[in-house]
Amino acid sequence: MTRITLSPQRLRWAEVAFWLALASCFFLLPDKLTLMSQILIFGLFAVSLDMALGYAGILTVGHAAFFGAGAYAAGLLAKHGWGEPFTGLLVALVVCAALGYLLSYLVVRGADLTRLMITIGVCVLLAELANRLSGITGGTDGLQGMVMWPVLGLFEFDLYGKTAFLYAFGVVLVMFLGVRLILRSPFGLALRGIHDSRKRMLAIGSPVASRLRMAYALSASVAGVAGALLAQTTQFVGIESIGFNRSAEVLIILVLGGTGRLYGGMIGALVYMLVHDAFADLNPEYWMFWLGIFLIAAVMVGRGGIMGALSRLAKRSAP
Questions:
Q1: Are 50 and 305 in contact (CB under 8 A)?
Q2: For the segment 1-25, what is each residue's pLDDT rounded down to a tens digit?
Q3: Residue 24 burial (C-beta neighbours within 10 Å; 0-12, 13-18, 19+)
Q4: Are 287 and 247 in contact (CB under 8 A)?
């Protein structure tokens, strides 16, 4: 069988085709724009987790802490009178970057199991804090009463999700390109080196701890922007956005798409949420059973996730 060979030029065209296909949903799937907006947002969330887990090798199962913090930051800003969308994104980015950098001193110092427990503990604590401060966050009822201003002062958020989709698409594309620029920079290459062999990077004098802290803070900031996007496009923040279940869900998305691969989070979110939606419509009572069967089959068949399977398919044949 002849294997597919992808040159760098073909890969670039594949990237362009991927984003054009997503953009075309505005015209091709006008009744599914809300779902497509959430796919974009959760794809960005998964990319943020990949920065920490797939590239830096920081084992974390509590990334929803930053997703929820970003959502509440943007939501509270809008609720209390400032609904300008881009300002909300900036506030969420700064808040989550600061929170991630502070927590990185705990996360980076420990071993894998220690990091696992710390990230889970932080996520659970923040979720409980959001529940206790119901006067501010809305508790289990969620944060309501958000009023978003028109994007750029021109485009109001409509009931059909058209503005929300275009807004989410633009922000996710810009953030994704920013993440790609970071991961392809010398800093990103250093993260790959740390992930492959921390001892070797220490031996050549690389500041491993400081780079891991920076990577964790950058990852947290991207997750915060994703959370803020969800809050702004739905004009609601539920307490589940900061819970452990959300962390587990995005980890499933990333594993499905493939860790350590730039498009793994985006592809994983696209497949996971489309399958999720299809099974929920097909069998509203037992859809989680079928979703579980699908995830087990996908992991068993596709080692390295969907991107891993595509990579093996497109690998150049040995001469």
A1: no
A2: 334 445 566 678 888 899 999 999 9
A3: exposed
A4: no
Instruction: Name 181's Cβ contacts closer than 8 Å, sequence gap at least 6.
Output: none
Q: How far apart are the first and last CA of the chain?
A: 14
What does the block give as tokens for 40? 């974009």
One-letter amino acid for residue 137 of the chain: T
Backbone angles phi, psi at 42, to 5 degrees: -70, -25
For the record, the structure tokens of 194 come out as: 């740390």
How far are the Cα atoms of 110, 120, 233 from residue 137, in angstroms, in the given order?
A: 32, 21, 18
**How many residues comprise the chain?**
319
Helices (H), the chain: 8-28, 33-50, 64-79, 85-107, 112-132, 134-137, 162-183, 186-196, 198-203, 208-234, 244-257, 264-282, 287-301, 305-314
- Model confidence over 245-262: pLDDT tens digits? 898 899 999 988 888 888
The DSSP symbol for 2 reads P
What is the spatial distance between Cα 234 and Cα 178, in angstroms, rounded to a whole number?
Answer: 25
Whole-model pTM: value is 0.92
Tokens found for residue 65: 């802490």
| Distance in angstroms (rounded) separating the CA atoms of residues 109 and 124 | 20
| Residue 32 neighbours by CB distance under 10 Å | 15
